[in-house]
Amino acid sequence: MTSIYIPYGTTEGQTAKIAEFVADVVRAHGYEALAVDVKHAGGTIPDGYDAVIVGASVHIGKHEDYVRDFVKKNRAVLDRLPSALFSVSLSAHGDAENAEGYVEKFEDETGWRPAQVGLFSGALLYTQYGFIKRLVMKKIASDKGSPDLDTSRDYVYTEWDGVKRFAEDFLAKVA
Asked: What integer pLDDT is reported at residue 59 of this predicted model?
């Protein structure tokens, strides 16, 4: 049975939710899938996997350093196996050009050119932020023209149908 490894990096948890959703889609199509936080997964892609989907979130204009380092260390495996990247950012919600720029920078830093890339909108999780971060995120949202400025609630922008299509498109290529 085809087995897909889904290592991801997450700061606030939305990328983890997306990775688990991708794993659920993969399993629903009869494949095996394991989604793991790169911080806790060890430094290498384990043997026995037939494909890899890497997930990373963008904060302060870049993907997590530890995901970049993981990709650099495992580049030979990622080049050999069918592989894809999904990038999670607030820029993917209305500023695709900026979101694409983050992926281009990541590709330049790692040397990895995934065959498939998904750009997914993240979330504004005001209720999980400390006081300062909540103010900073509200200011950023306001500067971008977002109406989502009520800091007493969270805003999830992830388009789950798009995540499902991304996973299914990847599976079609793997099969």
From this structure: 84
Q: What is the CATH number assigned to the segment(s) 3-122+160-174?
A: 3.40.50.360
Q: How much is the pTM?
A: 0.93
Domain boundaries, the chain: 3-122+160-174, 124-156
108-120 burial: b if 16+ Cβ within 10 Å, else e = eebebebeebbbb
pLDDT at 42 over 90: no
Beta strands 3-8 and 62-63 are unpaired
Residue 116 has pLDDT above 90, yes or no: yes
Cβ–Cβ < 8 Å for 42, 97: no
Angstrom distance (rounded) from CA 103 to CA 107 = 6
Cα 78 to the chain's mean position, in Å? Answer: 16
